[in-house]
């Protein structure tokens, strides 16, 4: 006889999940995990803003200065070893004389008593400063020219303003430098620059330079370091001018290939490998000897362990950012429900700004918003004697 037959027949036993507790438990778990991550890494930024690196672009003046510096260093010119430019002359700092030092010296030398001649001796005039001397020179220059009025003085000052070169002029000067180095121009008009760049010009125009130097020469003279979009439209013309006439590089390569072919053809009957020295590897791969790779394996395990730790930290930081974003959206959704404004948008992470806060309040909680709330209040009606007397009777009877 089954003791539980009556119970099983009357009603079925079923389990019911407490959904409210399940939701709260999920929130508690998220908050607990978020707090652990905050204690470990601190608050993380959720924005994906990235700063772009500023590109350093060369200018014509920078290119000219670089060429001159390269020529000085490449050919060890004497200017590189001048003593006045190699080391700055260090001057000993004179010790400042204080009032106590002056009084001590005065008591030791004069006994603290000043003579009549020293008291009557006029004080020596202090020399003029650098700026005072410059002002005096300007004043003497104006007096010599004869400018008395302010307008004329302004015109004279305008005459002394240094003229600034345009970008086209700077680019033209750079092109002149490159043309002179290629041998397409006789002079630069700058004796100092020609003296510094003369060894470089002579070296680059020598047909017997190595292949590496030729590549470097073409790379610099044709502005190979610039982007294709930023390069000048005249770069193709400059390259064509550089390679006008017979191509010596191709001729040399052709002669080398011809010599190799002739050598192989003449000695084709010899034993193969006779002109090569046989060598054997230090470590033979097919050896039966076991390799001791324990240290290498330990290093690999250590690197793999560090990589996994970094990945774990990155995953935890991403999870923390996700939890912060979810909490922010929950707070914003709560505000929307309380305010009955589903279009409410407010940055909860930003610092509090009174002016911005007032603008948002005016935008979402204006007069129309409060007029809608008044519509839900209890309406008021005009006085009706019959209805009011009937309500009074019910109230007196306790209804």
Index terms:
mainly alpha, 399 residues, extended
Coarse structural class: mainly alpha
Q: Strand fraction band?
A: under 5%
User: Helical stretch count?
Assistant: 17
Distance between the termini: 61 Å
**Unreliable segments of 5+ consecutive residues:** 48-55, 121-125, 155-159
- Summarize model confidence as the mean pLDDT: 72
- Characterize the largest beta sheet: strand count, sense, and whether it forms a barrel: none
Radius of gyration: 46 Å
Helix content: 55-70%
* Count of extended strands: 0
Structural write-up:
There is one protein chain. Helix 2 crosses helix 14, helix 3 packs parallel to helix 9 and helix 3 packs across helix 10. The chain is 59% helix and 0% strand. About 5% of the residues have low confidence. It has 17 helices and no strands. The radius of gyration is 46 Å and the shape is extended. Among the domains are: 68 residues, no CATH class; 71 residues. The chain has 399 residues and is an all-alpha fold. Keywords: Coiled coil. This is Protein KRI1 homolog. One of its GO terms (biological process) is endonucleolytic cleavage in ITS1 to separate SSU-rRNA from 5.8S rRNA and LSU-rRNA from tricistronic rRNA transcript (SSU-rRNA, 5.8S rRNA, LSU-rRNA).
């Amino acid at each position: 006889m089954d003791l539980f037959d009556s119970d099983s027949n009357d009603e079925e036993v079923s389990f019911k999940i407490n959904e409210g507790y399940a939701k709260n438990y999920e929130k508690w778990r998220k908050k607990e995990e978020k707090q652990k991550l905050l204690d470990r890494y601190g608050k993380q930024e959720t924005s994906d803003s990235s700063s772009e690196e500023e590109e350093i672009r060369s200018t014509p003046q920078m290119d000219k200065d670089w060429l001159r510096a390269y020529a000085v260093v490449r050919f060890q010119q004497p200017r590189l070893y001048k003593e006045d430019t190699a080391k700055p002359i260090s001057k000993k700092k004179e010790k400042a004389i204080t009032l106590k030092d002056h009084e001590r010296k005065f008591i030791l030398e004069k006994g603290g008593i000043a003579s009549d001649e020293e008291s009557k001796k006029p004080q020596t005039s202090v020399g003029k400063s650098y700026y005072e001397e410059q002002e005096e020179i300007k004043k003497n220059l104006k007096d010599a020219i004869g400018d008395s009025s302010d307008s004329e003085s302004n015109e004279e000052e305008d005459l002394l303003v240094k003229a600034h070169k345009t970008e086209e002029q700077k680019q033209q000067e750079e092109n002149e430098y490159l043309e002179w180095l290629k041998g397409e121009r006789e002079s630069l008009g700058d004796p100092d620059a020609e003296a510094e760049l003369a060894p470089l010009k002579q070296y680059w125009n020598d047909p017997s330079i190595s292949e590496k130097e030729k590549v470097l020469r073409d790379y610099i003279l044709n502005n190979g370091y610039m982007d294709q979009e930023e390069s000048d439209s005249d770069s193709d013309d400059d390259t064509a001018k550089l390679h006008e006439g017979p191509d010596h590089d191709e001729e040399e390569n052709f002669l080398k290939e011809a010599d190799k072919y002739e050598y192989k053809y003449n000695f084709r009957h010899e034993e193969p490998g006779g002109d090569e020295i046989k060598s054997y590897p230090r470590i033979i791969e097919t050896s039966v000897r076991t390799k001791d790779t324990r240290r290498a394996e330990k290093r690999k395990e250590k690197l793999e362990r560090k990589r996994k730790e970094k990945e774990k930290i990155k995953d935890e930081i991403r999870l923390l950012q996700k939890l912060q974003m979810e909490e922010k959206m929950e707070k914003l959704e709560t505000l929307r429900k309380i305010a009955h404004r589903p279009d409410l948008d407010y940055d909860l992470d930003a610092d509090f700004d009174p002016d911005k806060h007032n603008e948002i309040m005016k935008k979402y909680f204006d007069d129309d918003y409060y007029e809608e709330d008044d519509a839900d209040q209890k309406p008021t009606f005009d006085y009706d004697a019959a209805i009011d007397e009937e309500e009074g009777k019910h109230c007196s009877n306790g209804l």
